[in-house]
Design goal:
Layout: E1 3-5, E2 13-24, E3 27-35, E4 45-51, E5 56-64, E6 75-83, E7 86-96, E8 111-120, E9 133-136, E10 143-150, E11 153-162, E12 166-174, E13 180-187, E14 194-203, E15 206-214, E16 226-235, E17 240-242, E18 248-249, E19 256-263, E20 269-275, E21 281-282, E22 288-290, E23 292-293, E24 297-302, E25 305-310, H1 312-317, E26 320-321, E27 333-338, E28 344-347, E29 350-355, E30 358-362, E31 376-378, E32 387-393, E33 396-401, E34 406-411, E35 419-420, E36 425-428
Parallel strand pairs: 2-22
Antiparallel strand pairs: 1-5, 2-3, 3-4, 4-5, 6-7, 7-8, 8-9, 10-11, 11-12, 12-13, 14-15, 15-16, 16-17, 16-18, 19-20, 20-23, 20-24, 21-22, 24-25, 26-36, 27-32, 27-36, 28-29, 28-35, 29-30, 30-31, 32-33, 33-34
């Protein structure tokens, strides 16, 4: 099986949303939407990777694949919980009402969606042919169950749409995790026209909601669907969620989508998300892969703002300060700098600079001939603080601004090997030579 460090990448062909992110029996499990036959989206399976530290990942094969009428056209996104020592996966099964005879893996027509559950005694073996159970029959356009336990009850939130006009989060409650009752619905223009991958969780005493809103920003550089986050008031008894006036983007590079959170071994709330890639990467020898995950990020809430901070496991990986010239050699690099007004840093052709109290980035020089996608990104106003913690790999650059106040993550292609501009400190990963 293939192994990845820092960023979980497609083990060949295509991946998208992280699914079933859980710390279970001493191991982190991360499942993901997976099309194993080509580097394009198609009939979804669940690929499976494991890690002891959220940094070193091993792919362990396919966990879920279509076997029932209800999921014959895809095992869509979902989540995992531990119950009585078992790992239970909840996901959306998709069945197209009309098949394209030229390509059975895609459909622009209507489909039926149901919520299913499958259980495993060890987190590695899943009975796809006999172990799947429908827990919420097909109702409207609902998808991507996030399930959690609070006290003696289980809760589920599903993404949905209201008459195709406004995204909504639909809440269910259960006493046993199998029989569910619909309790409430929260809808908002902040959820776009359809909400995907909803996630409600607590950070301390505060509730945070994260979701992926379809058609939230039309015509914005290749992607119209974006991940948003916000603090919310949540009434557990009535499952009523009150939203604030404003929301944040989870990531201001806007390549990031479908985030999912989990509690790590130390009780921190950790987020991982899919980085959308407009073009596959070709490895030496011709193998193609498309799709990767961002670094694990600790979610914190402070003074009315949601922060996404570098996970301590990533800090540990970059303990060694690099020596020699500031160059890129294809290995992971961490760069720290406090930008001065008007200052610019060029990382292999990826430009970062301060302008009018914003941190801005431009990947135009390292985005090949890709058209229709944004190349420039920006934070909101920063009020004079410009501390940057930058993580560089050949196909992804993540810029943490002011200790995670904002993050700009950008997919790149064809980075050069030079770092031009003032760098305060540069750190190498474990493989630096």
């Amino acid at each position: 099986m293939s192994k990845d460090t820092l960023h979980l990448k497609a083990p060949g062909n295509w991946i998208n949303d992280p699914n079933g992110f859980i710390y279970y029996k001493g191991t982190y499990h991360l499942f993901y939407q997976y099309f194993p036959y080509a580097p394009v989206w198609g009939t979804m399976h669940w690929g499976h990777a494991v890690s002891r530290d959220l940094v070193h990942w091993e792919h362990v094969g396919v966990a879920l694949f279509p076997t029932r009428h209800e999921d014959q056209n895809g095992c869509f996104s979902g989540s995992a919980i531990e119950q009585d020592g078992r790992m239970n996966l909840y996901y959306t099964g998709i069945c197209y009402r009309e098949i394209d005879p030229e390509n059975i893996h895609v459909s622009e027509k209507e489909y039926d969606a149901v919520q299913l559950m499958i259980s495993s005694k060890d987190g590695y073996s899943f009975d796809n042919f006999g172990g799947k159970r429908i827990v919420v029959p097909g109702t409207e356009n609902m998808r991507d169950p996030k399930v959690w336990r609070d006290g003696s009850d289980f809760y589920m939130v599903l993404g949905s749409s209201s008459r195709g006009e406004m995204g909504s989060a639909v809440f269910y409650r259960s006493e046993d995790g199998l029989r569910w009752r619909c309790i409430s619905r929260a809808q908002s223009e902040k959820f776009g026209t359809t909400l995907e991958c909803p996630d409600l969780f607590q950070v301390g005493d505060d509730h945070i909601f994260i979701g992926s809103a379809m058609y939230l920003a039309r015509g914005t550089g290749g992607y119209e669907h974006h991940a948003v986050c916000m603090p919310v008031d949540f009434d557990r008894e009535k499952c009523r969620m009150m939203l604030p006036e404003e929301y944040q983007y989870v990531d201001y590079g806007l390549d990031l989508y479908a985030p999912q959170t989990n509690v790590d071994a130390e009780g921190r709330r950790v987020m991982i998300a899919w980085m959308r890639m407009p073009r596959a990467v070709e490895e030496p020898g011709g193998a193609l892969w498309n799709g990767m995950m961002c670094l694990p990020r600790v979610v914190e809430y402070q003074d009315g703002h949601v922060y996404f901070r570098v996970h301590p496991a990533v800090d540990k990986y970059f303990e060694k300060e690099a020596v020699g010239p500031a160059v890129l050699n294809g290995e992971p690099v961490r760069i720290r700098v406090t930008m001065r007004p008007g200052e610019c840093l060029d990382i292999g052709g990826f430009r970062i600079w301060e302008e009018s109290d914003f941190i801005r980035t431009d990947r135009k020089a390292v985005f090949g001939d890709i058209r229709g996608h944004r190349t420039m990104s920006s934070t909101p106003k920063l009020h004079g603080r410009y501390g940057l913690d930058i993580f560089v790999e050949p196909n992804l650059i993540e810029v943490f601004v002011n200790e995670g106040e904002y993050v700009i993550s950008s997919v790149v292609y064809g980075l050069g090997d030079r770092i031009c501009g003032r760098v305060e400190r540069i750190f190498a990963g474990e493989t630096w030579e």
